[in-house]
Write a structure and sequence with these properties.
Layout: H1 2-20, H2 25-34, H3 39-59, H4 62-67, H5 70-93, H6 96-115, H7 117-125, H8 132-148, H9 153-163, H10 169-194, H11 199-219, H12 225-246
Amino acid sequence: MIDFIIITGAAFFAGVLNAIAGGGSFLTFPALVFVGVPPIAANATSAVAVFPGYLSGAAGFMEELRIFDRGALLALLGLSVVGGVLGAILLLITPSAVFSFIVPWLLLFATLLFAFDENIRSWTQSKKGVNPIGKTTTILTVTTYGGYFNGGLGIVLLALFSGLGYRDINLMNGLKNALSFILSGASVATFLLAGIVYLREATIMMVAATIGGYIGAKLAKRLPRTAIRTIVIVVGLGMTMVFWTRS
């Protein structure tokens, strides 16, 4: 019962955080590890838990996605599938001890991305003339990261789109959610086929995260953005320290 309360609460608040500012993986992944799920399986199960929310997020920007260049969109989605599968396979072949060692670094990386996302996007906006090979390689690298470890993916994708020259924030958010849904779907399918997902926990957390996302969308209109960002950063740094002491 205690484990049920922990993972349900973590998933609920993860849904709230994702709806408001992102960073839900900072709660779902550590919660699963805390209740005894091995780190690699916890990462895969966490990905399943937050996966459905990306679709509803993308649906909110369908108007922008419909007018976006169809060929460019298909190319982005295709690379997302490839990257999602590559990232998932990379996770599956990573030894458990190695993954446990790098988890604190991944959490710290994701937290710093979230903390300095505006600086990162400002920097990428100043970069011009990305060649096709560099563009493809960068997209594939980002989506592979998302398939391997979901934390901070939204910030990385927004920075990527800024670097590619996109300026419409609604379009960028729509693309972010669409690519997150596709690459997460590819990685989740890989994890399910590999049999490393804890299905009972994943199902419970999906329901809780969906409810939390709905409530979070309501709260997003009332809570100060700086307060939510502070909460996400503090949680991220706290989880980093917890996993550092365990590694």
